[in-house]
Structure formats: structure tokens, C-alpha cells
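Troubleshooting log. The previous structure file for this entry was overwritten by mistake, so regenerating from the original sequence record. Sequence copied from the archived sheet and checked twice against the printout by T.R.
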Amino acid sequence: MTPDEEKQPLTAHLAELQKRLTWAIIALIVGTVVSTFFVEQFIKVLTAPAERLGVTFQFIHVTGYIGPFFEVALRGGFVLALPVIVYQAVMFIRPGLLPNERRWLYISLPVVVLAFLTGVAFGYFVLLPPAIGFLFTFGSDIAEPRPLIGDYISTMLTLLFWLGVVFETPFLFFLLARLGVLSPYVVARQRRLGLVAAFVLGAVITPTGDPVNMTVVAVPVYLLFELGILLGKIGWRLRRGKAS
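Regenerated output below.
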């Protein structure tokens, strides 16, 4: 409800939450079903950077291909359902906001999806080529790389997913500051912690252990952190009516 409306009982909020979760799950199921028709194409896209290096994949169990197949279908279904999932989250918190705050939530729908896809594109076109080149050429004079398709697909999907999430950081900073939930000035005083966190994320996200590829991830992550502070300050000033 809006602040000037009568508050709903807890049971009504729980019922609304159940409704939104149900629609989000339905969207995920539908998206996954649709995604299954394109899994082969998705897998070819994911394996293309390695195949250009002459790498061949294998699976050693009878069901070795089923796992990566459904993992790709589920991750693809999540991407397809992401607009609906974000919409359901927005509609759940919408009643407690003022009309001008609701407008910013509506704007967030396409921006969140676009930011996620931008992060995935960055990972695929910028990060994957050098990372895969390092992984499959290091020690190749000793042993021929023939990775398991399941391990490769899981690693690539995890990397691309978290990069998509990280790329949403600047807009989330802006939105939270605009809604008065997060002060960018408090966050700005934690720059050292942000820098450390960026390199920790770089180490976690990067499939290789070398410092070069870790830095390739960590530097953009920290720049996104700084961009988030800048956008957060803009959102904070807009909230207080100081922006021109």
C-alpha cells in the first residue's frame, strides 16, 4: 500500500508474496522449456572459443551430456524469465512506495535486464578468449587438453552469470540511493574495501588462477563500483531535489 493507505495484515503480504513467487516460478519453467529448443545452439556458442584453439570435448559417463544439457536449459530459462522475475519483485515492493518512487522501479525493469546482458557479453567477448587461451595452452606440450563437456559448460555459465550480476551494480546503487535505502557517501568511504572485494570477486569468478585474467575481471568490477557511487550520488541528489 502507499504510505497514506491503510496497512495490510501480515497474511495479505504473505499471500501477495506467494502470488509473485508463483508467477516467477511459472516464468522460469516456461523459459526453461523454451530454452531447451535452443540448447544445442547455446552449447555451440559456449564451446566456440575453445574449439577455435583445437580443443575437443568429451564425456566419460553414459549420462555425461544430460547434466550440461539441462544446466544450459535452466540458465537460459532464467535469462528469458528475468524480465518477469524482476517485474514480480517490483510489483511486490511497489505498494509501499510513493508514486514518484514507483516510476523509478518501472524504469529499472529494462535497465536491469540490459545491464545483465552487457555483463554476459563482456565476459564472453573480452574475458573468455584470454582465459580459455591460458587454460588450454598452459602445459599443452605435456598433455593434450580434452576437457569434460560438463565441467567446461558449468565453469563458463558460472563465470558469465556472475559477471552479468556484477554489471547490475551501478544501477542498483542509483536505484537504492534514489529510494533512500542506501547512502552513496557511506559507500564511498569504503573504497579500500571495494577494491579488495573487486580482486576477491576477480579471483572467484575467473576460471584461471593467474593474476592477469584475475585483473581483467577485477579492474572492470572496481570501475563499476566507482560508477555505482557516482550514480548513487546523482540518485541521492534527485531524491533531495538538488539536481538540476
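Residues 1-6 have pLDDT under 50 and may be disordered. Archived copy saved in two places this time.
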